[in-house]
Amino acid sequence: MQKLIQVLLWLAGIIVLVIIFKTLFFKSLQGEFELVEQPLFGQECVKNLSEAVKYSTVSYSPDSPIDTLAFMGYLEFIKKAYPLIDSLLQHEIFNKFSLLYQWRGSDTSLAPVVFMAHYDVVPPGDTSGWERGPFSGYNDGIYIWGRGTLDDKAAMISILEAVEHLLEERFVPARTIYLSFGHDEEISGERGAKTIALALKERGIKPEYVLDEGMAVTIGMVPMVKKPVALIGTSEKGYLSVRLTAEMPGGHSSTPEKESALTLIAGSVNRLNSGQMKPHLSGPVNDFIRYIGPEMPFYARVIFANKWLFQPLILNIYSGTASGNALVRTTTAPTIIHSGVKDNVIPTKAEAIVNFRILPGETSEDVVEHVRKVVNDSRVNIEVLRDFINEPAPFSPSDAFGFRMVFRSVREVYPEAIVAPTLTLSASDSRHFAVITENIYRFAPLVVTSDDMARVHGLNECTKIENYLRGIRFYYQLIKNSQ
User: Is residue 333 assigned to a domain?
Assistant: First the structure.
């Protein structure tokens, strides 16, 4: 017994030493970057974003018509607002409304880069809830208001402002730069970004990296970190929805059977919601921990520096919040349920839609198998909505040229921020470009709080003018750094 105690103490001592060693060598990866002198971008840039928002370029659904006058008007506005881009860059239009510009570089041996954005927006919803009109582009001196000021016209206009200014300076890039602007990202990007990506593939274009929207400079959104955190998406979750349906005899509500179509569906939804897929740390989240961990308080550094020991605790910590849970799990979200026609009639049919956002390392097939096992009722029909399946995006490396350039540019323009790779929870047009490069990064130079994020696809979307102007400086610096 004494020998066993000695062995256990010896093992405990080794574990403590390993923990201390790993914690001490869990060093910051932020590096030192000097502030760089950049041009000032002023009121003309503000005016252009304000004007861009006024065009109601709304995407409703893949089979719904669009306001072609608004889309055509927006493209005409772009042409007039950026005359050097229009005259000096080669440009093409895909499926009437998506744009691709080519800015030829001086060194054809260098692989090109692609900067992306989209200019379609989601519907504004009940406009009576907006403080300013959703397509007013109202400038109150601090904010610009309207759809697209966060998602995603601000990024598109910022890219164009940076490029137009560089053309005014007679800057010639060493590597070719493509600007890809989709018109249907909000309804999957099939006619816009996907068509452009396939065209570039046919031409043999293999970009050094692609940068699209996805993450931002966040304030107060990463637990235990007081500084702003700039998050760069290195992958994005997949997407799958299933429809559950059940049919049973109905009847009068005064003499109900023990089960009905409605109770079968309600029970299935409840089992799926309570029996979700197991959490795990994907590649992007492991990278996130490596970059963000050294910036945390000491007790948290101990935990994150020693994933080999504390991984169950880490998964438990993340699973405790909605945003954290989404980073470590394929999420389950019941979103629609239909049944019944009258309060005293037991329905004969019920159906529900359940949406899953798939974690890298898992597939749509894994999700469907999970649904079948959890529902486990032959009376419930499970139908995969195949028009809306996206597998998780490939994992882009954080040691590649593209990531380093985005990282460096963020640190130069936002020196107060910590920078970290992470997993993008929503979908973007960039997934279509996986056919031509593995180096895809998702970051738009927005400075956002959790309140701002609630405005994306919500009411009162607006962006702070000083943050928008800073975003132009980010693209300006990134273009120069990427040569």
Answer: yes
